[in-house]
Structure formats: structure tokens, C-alpha cells
From TrEMBL:
Pfam families in UniProt: HTH_1, LysR_substrate
Gene3D superfamilies named in the record: Periplasmic binding protein-like II, Winged helix-like DNA-binding domain superfamily/Winged helix DNA-binding domain
Family named by the database record: Belongs to the LysR transcriptional regulatory family.
Name of this chain's protein: Putative LysR family transcriptional regulator
PANTHER family cross-referenced by the UniProt entry: HTH-TYPE TRANSCRIPTIONAL REGULATOR LEUO-RELATED, TRANSCRIPTIONAL REGULATORY PROTEIN
Length: 300
């Protein structure tokens, strides 16, 4: 394809990311008819509709979804080349790094990371974005986030994955629970009501394992984060499930006890993900290595 207008690439990327002609026009300081005209030109050049309208916004076609990551990478190379390869000096940087993580990540993984950042990059800020696994790939590609720490596996080839921790699950209940001991049977487990953490946090392995056995938990309460669990479990007869890596901490926070799950659940890997750029961003690479060093995954 010859004489392709780079402005069309920028328009395509924003249409894909915003799923809206109106928001794309606002971001480009153009009129909506101008964006619609650009989309019409692209449809002719690619011989594909690229987007279709739906109640939730523009939906990309299969071709548009295949084109997006490659065009995004290509456009970043052009931007970087024009502006000059970025430099990053942790000792003087005032950069803000945006990290997707759960509240468990904040409690168990963030303290040593922040300590090392304070030592080596005193002007750097870290903003934690509550993990919503449904949007992390998009936000990493668009530069709205720098990294993600999560349990679910991101399999897309344009992401770098570093395993930080291997973990397993256990049950938790009130220390004075009248019916549940340290090793309940499956029937005893299923006969109790449960507090569940929303699937957006990414911890779905236990319920998936139960489903494969033909069972499901009787959920009395669904919450967004793990942090409230110790106090909720202490004051109710309900059960819940937590990663074993935080079990001691939760038992110190409230009068609760842990128990073995009466069915097999695969061990999980908590991993750090960053976006693979054609021209690596020195700041992101520094942040990635700092997280790994702080958590003992990589030597200094």
C-alpha cells in the first residue's frame, strides 16, 4: 500500500482505543465529519469496514484487531525516533509509574518495592490502579499503565512476563467456627456460606476447580477487595478463600484461622507484565528490574 497518510494511522489508533468517533474527534481537535471521512478512506484502502456500531460503541472487525498492535508499535517507533530516544536517570527522575495490582499485591509485594525505589529513585512516584483484568492489556498498550502484577496469565505475545511468586490457596474462617476445623470435608465446605472476592481481582482458580467437580460455592457476600476479609470472617460464620502467602498476616489482623481446601487447586504464579516495545522504554525497563530485585527474583 503506497502513500498511506500517517494521520490516518493516528485516527485509527484513537478510534480503536476510544471506540468513539466523538472522543476521537475531541482528542485530535477535529470535527466529527472529518473523523468519519478519515474512517471512510481507511475502509476503502483496507477493503474492510474496520468498525461496526453497537450500543457499547464501535466494535473492531477481526482485521482491525489484528492491525492495532502492529500499528501501535509502529507509531511509537516513529514518535520515539522524531523526539529522540528517551533517557531515564532514576536519581533525578520525577516520573510517575502506574501499576495495576490488587490490594493483596499492595500488602504483600509493594513494601519492599517502595523501599528500594525510595533508596534509588527518591523523586519517583508510584500510583496503584486497582486491578481490573479486563482492561489491563489495553491500558498497557496505550501507555495508561506501565506494569501489571496479577495471577491470571496474559498470553498475548507483545507482553513481557516475569514470575515473581508461586502461591497456593487455603480456606479462612472464624477461629471459633463451630463446624469447620483445620481439615473439613468437601460436604462441610459446601454446606457453609461464603464471602467471595470479585473476579476482576483475577483469583478465579478455586471456583474453576470446584466447577470442574460439578460444585459451586453458596456466596452470601461478594466484595471487591481482599482487605476486608479478616474482619468480615471473624464476625460471621462464613468461609472464604485466600492466597496462602497472606494467611499469616490475615490471622494476625483478626481472630481467624486457616484450613486446608478439601479439593485440589493448581498452584498459581503471580507475575509482573510490561509491554514489549520495539524501542524499549528505559524507565519501564528500570521499573521492571527494580520490582524483580526488590522481590528477590533478580540480583542487584
Amino acid at each position: 500500500m503506497t502513500d498511506f497518510d500517517l494521520n490516518l494511522v493516528r485516527t485509527f489508533l484513537l478510534l480503536y482505543e476510544t471506540r468513539s468517533v466523538t472522543r476521537t474527534a475531541e482528542r485530535l481537535s477535529l470535527t466529527q465529519p472529518s473523523v468519519s471521512h478519515a474512517l471512510s478512506r481507511m475502509r476503502k484502502q483496507f477493503n474492510d469496514s474496520l468498525f461496526s456500531r453497537s450500543p457499547s460503541g464501535l466494535q473492531p472487525t477481526e482485521l482491525a484487531s489484528a492491525m492495532y498492535p502492529r500499528l501501535r508499535q509502529a507509531f511509537e517507533v516513529i514518535d520515539t525516533t522524531v523526539s529522540g530516544v528517551g533517557q531515564f536517570d532514576p536519581a533525578t527522575s520525577r516520573r510517575i509509574f502506574r501499576l495495576h495490582a490488587t490490594d493483596l499485591g499492595e500488602v504483600s509485594l509493594l513494601p519492599p518495592v517502595l523501599r528500594l525505589i525510595a533508596e534509588t529513585a527518591p523523586g519517583v512516584d508510584v500510583h496503584i490502579i486497582p486491578l481490573d483484568f479486563a482492561v489491563v492489556e489495553t491500558e498497557l498498550r496505550q501507555g495508561q499503565a506501565d506494569a501489571v502484577i496479577c495471577t491470571p496469565r496474559i498470553t498475548a505475545p507483545d507482553f513481557e512476563r516475569d514470575v515473581l511468586l508461586r502461591d497456593s490457596y487455603c480456606g479462612i474462617c472464624s477461629a471459633s467456627h463451630p463446624r469447620v476445623g483445620t481439615d473439613p470435608t468437601l460436604d462441610e465446605f459446601l454446606n457453609e456460606r461464603h464471602v467471595a472476592v470479585d473476579v476482576s481481582a483475577g483469583h478465579t482458580d478455586v471456583d474453576r476447580s470446584l466447577s470442574l467437580l460439578g460444585h459451586s460455592r453458596d456466596v452470601a457476600l461478594r466484595i471487591a477487595h481482599f482487605a476486608a476479609l479478616p474482619q468480615l470472617i471473624e464476625k460471621t460464620p462464613h468461609l472464604s478463600i485466600i492466597p496462602r502467602s497472606v494467611s499469616d498476616k490475615f490471622c494476625r489482623m483478626a481472630d481467624v484461622k486457616t484450613f486446608e481446601l478439601p479439593f485440589a487447586v493448581p498452584a498459581v504464579e503471580i507475575s509482573l507484565y510490561t509491554y514489549k516495545r520495539v524501542l524499549p522504554d528505559p524507565g519501564t525497563e528500570w521499573f521492571r528490574r527494580t520490582v524483580k530485585i526488590a522481590l528477590g527474583v533478580e540480583a542487584r
